[in-house]
Every structure is written in C-alpha cells, then in structure tokens.
Specification:
about 120 residues; alpha+beta; Hypothetical Cytosolic Protein, Chain: A; three-stranded antiparallel β-sheet; two-stranded antiparallel sheet; 3 helices; globular; binds zinc ion
Length: about 120
C-alpha cells in the first residue's frame, strides 16, 4: 500500500473541455447521482471510490471496483451524506472518512464563484 500517494484534489476545468466522444447519449453514458437521484451525463458527474475507510474522488473515473456517482454540487454531496448513500453505494462498512470529497467539492465551488 502506498499510503502517501494521495493526490491533492484538483478542480475540473469547464465541462466544455471534456471529450464527450466516449459517452454519446446512449445508456452507457448516463449515471444516477446518489445525492439527488437524478440522472445526468457521465461528464457532469464525478465518481467516488473507496480507499479503505476513506472516500476519494476518482477524477478520471478509471479506478477499478465499485464507484458512486455524484453531481459536482455540494448540495448533492450533502444529500448523499445525510442519507449515507455513499457508504451504501460503495458497500462500505462502519464509519467512513469523506473529508477528501468535501475538500474536492469545496475547491470546485470556489473555482466556480471566481468565474462569476
Ligand atoms: Zn445530484
């Protein structure tokens, strides 16, 4: 285990820069947000994965194993946490450490406010 390999969260650039080619509009490109339960394009959601007791953002959505999808909105994260949807979606047992996810979402929102 390389415990020190944890990367600092980095906000996504505008979703306009994301390459939509893999997604199309077919079923494979659609994910359900575990916060608001609405479906959205894969490019609009972020993937969360479990690392031991920690939950981290899988920015490239390429990590193996189970993932949970969430809109890039702190409101959706709050809903997911309140309902314990993250732990359930990732089949985690016991307390979970979602600190890294909150940090990541905080960086996203700050970046968006700066634009406006
Ligand atoms: Zn949502």
């Amino acid at each position: 285990m390389g415990g020190s390999a944890f990367r600092t969260p980095r906000p996504l650039r505008s979703s306009a820069h994301l390459n939509p080619s893999q997604d199309g509009l077919g079923g494979a490109g659609v994910r359900t947000c575990i916060g608001c339960r609405e479906r959205g394009r894969r490019a609009d959601l972020v993937r969360l994965i479990a690392r031991g007791e920690r939950v981290v953002v899988d920015e490239r959505a390429s990590a193996p194993g189970r993932g949970a999808w969430l809109h890039c909105r702190s409101a959706c994260l709050e809903q997911a946490v309140r309902r314990r949807a993250i732990g359930r979606a990732l089949r985690m047992q016991g307390p979970i450490d979602d600190h890294a996810v909150w940090t990541w979402f905080g960086a996203i929102e700050r970046a968006e406010h700066r634009v406006e």
